[in-house]
Amino acid sequence: MAMTKSGFVLCATAAAITAVTITGAGLHLSKGQAFFRESPKELVDEVWQIIDRNYVDGTFNQVDWKAVRTQYLKRSYVNQTDAYKAIREMLEKLNDPYTRFMNPEEFKNMQIDTSGELTGVGIQLAQDEKTKKLVVVAPIEDSPAFTAGILSKDIILKIDGQKAEGLDVNKAVTLIRGPAGTQVKLTVLRGTQELEFAIKRARIEIHPVRYTFQKTPAGGIGYIRLITFSANAADEMRNAIQVLEKKQVNGYILDLRSNPGGLLNASIEIARMWLQEGTIVSTVDRKGEVDRAQANSRALSLKPLVVLVDGGSASASEILSGALQDNNRAELVGTQTFGKGLVQSVRPLGDGSGLAVTIAKYYTPSGRDINKHGITPNHPVKLTDPERAALSSDRTKIGTLADPQYVKALEVLTKKVAKAQPGERAETKSN
Length: 431
Hints:
By secondary structure, the chain is an alpha+beta fold. The chain folds into 3 domains: 8-106, 2-Layer Sandwich (Transcription Regulator spoIIAA), CATH 3.30.750; 120-205, PDZ domain (Pdz3 Domain); 209-342 and 360-426, 2-enoyl-CoA Hydratase, Chain A, domain 1 (Alpha-Beta Complex). Helices cover 31% and strands 26% of the residues. It contains 13 helices and 22 strands. Strands 1, 3, 15, 16, 17, 20 and 21 form a 7-stranded antiparallel β-sheet that branches. Strands 2, 5, 6, 7, 8, 9 and 10 form a 7-stranded antiparallel β-sheet that branches. It has a 6-stranded mixed β-sheet with strand order 12-13-14-18-19-22, sandwiched between helices. A hairpin with a 2-residue loop joins strand 12 and strand 13 (219-226).
C-alpha cells in the first residue's frame, strides 16, 4: 500500500457537516455511469466487492460478508434510491462509522472540500461506536459553529427540532447542510447541560496554517497553529517555517488543538519538515503487510519544539504528534488526543457516488496502536470549563498568556531552549 498517495484519508469524522472528511486529489468518475443508473443492483454489488477486497478486518468485524452479498443481491431495486438505502444498511453491519457511502452530491462536496473551501457551519462529527450518539470532534476555527460556541465533545441532540438519536452521520449531514445564508438550529448536550445554537450557514475558506513571531522569556519563538491537514496544509506550513527561520527564532510551539485530521500525505510531509531521521508512521492492512513512512533528511528546522494537543486532535494530528513524541523531537502539552488510528481510502463509484472504506490501521514509530486510546501528552494540562469558554468566545486569546495550555508549553519550551546547544539553536535545514 503506497502511503504517499494523497487519496488516503485520515480524519476523525465519520462525515463532514461542512466537509470535514477530506479526500485525496485525482479521483475520477467511472465511464459506466449510465450502466449503473440503469442497473442499481450492480452498484450494490460494486460496493460489496470493494469492501470484500479492501476492508481492514478479514473477518469483517465477525460478519458473514458472503451471506450479506447473497441477501442483498436477492432483492429487487427499482431505482438508485433503493440501492443507496440498501448500501447504507449493508455497511451498517460492519459497525464501522468510518466506512460509509456518499451519494453523488455528498461525494462531489467532498471532492470540492479538498481545495480548502467549505459550505456549511463548520462542525466535524463522529458517531460514538458504543452509544451511536453524534459527537462533535471539533468546530473548524473561524467557522460559524466556532463563533457560535460549539465545542469539541458536544453531543448533538436535535437538528432543527428533529431528534438526532438514531441518525447516522450521513443523514445528520443532509439535515445540517444547506445554502449559505440560511440558518440551522442545533441542540447539544455539554456535560449535563442542554444548549441551543442558531447558526447561519456560510461559505468558508480555510487557510490551515497561522503563525506569529513572539517575544518571550525564551527569546523570539515561532507560534504555528495548524487547524486541518488539507491539500494546502504542507505548503502553508513550509512557508511559515521558512519565514520564522529568517527571523532567527530560538524555538517553536506547534498548536494542533482541535485539529481533526485530513490527508495522510499532508501529515507525513509536515512531519518531515521537523524530523531529520526516523520513522513517521507505519500501517498494517488485513494481510499484515507493513508500510513505513520515514523522514528524508530534509528537515526545515531542528530547533526546540513543543506541541499542543487536546481531545479534538485526531488522526493525522495524532500521526504528527506521535511521530514527534516517539522520536524525542518534541514534548506534548495538553490533554489526551481523540484516539483514531484508522486509514480510509475514498473510492469513486460507477454512478458518481463514492465510498470511504477503512483499509488499514496505523501505528506510531514506537508501535503504539492509539485507536480508541489516543496519545498521552508529556505534560498534562486540562482547561476548566470557564477557561475553554473564554478561549472559545475570544479566539484572539489562543496562543497567548491568557491561554493556560500555551503558558505551560512556553514554560517547557523555555527550558528546552536553555538546554539546547548554541549550534542546535541556530541549526536549520533547507530543501
